[in-house]
What we know:
This is DUF4232 domain-containing protein. The protein is α+β, with helices and mostly antiparallel strands. Helix content is 12%, strand content 27%.
Amino acid sequence: xxxxxxxxxxxxxxxxxxxxxxxxxxxxxxxxxxxxxxxxxxxxxxxxxxxxxxxxxxxxxxxxxxxxxxxxxxxxxxxxxxxxxxxxxxxxxxxxxxxxxxxxxxxxxxxxxxxxxxxxxxxxxxxxxxxxxxxxxxxxxxxxxxxxxxxxxxxxxxxxxxxxxxxxxxxxxxxxxxxxxxxxxxxxxxxxxxxxxxxxxxxxxxxxxxxxxxxxxxxx
Length: 220
């Protein structure tokens, strides 16, 4: 068996490492990029710390009085009927009520037609109830109220009417049957009042106001 000739010392190799050594120095741009990445990381960390420290004491109002409400969402003031020009109910002192009869005297079998006029003596327009529910007529003889329109009234209705300053309105006439009335005589035949030239007076009210005058008439 032939013997292997001894190796030349120049041909012997050192054992190779399992780790690869750098082949050589890296390019300068690589080092620049690495430094930029490190700097950006530091900046992000600092910014985060600043936000955490500053946020609790930021521009948050310390009290509700510091909160300002935008003008476009402010509460709209409520409309005032007086400022809006809407008429209000007539004061009693602003209404002048005058009773009216169609004649000054009535013969046998003639029925007096009773009505009234109402005038707004105020400076502003106002509303008055001039329906059957807001009017009343009374026929009296001396201190005796012989007949009242409200004693046996049924189906009374309200009728709000706007009266301009100085305006006068007249109601429709209602007939009086020349009998004595009371709340207990609505379902029975009523007795006629005295005639033969007897004097009677008509008084009236409307819109909560009572007329100061009366209208005198005679019955025959």
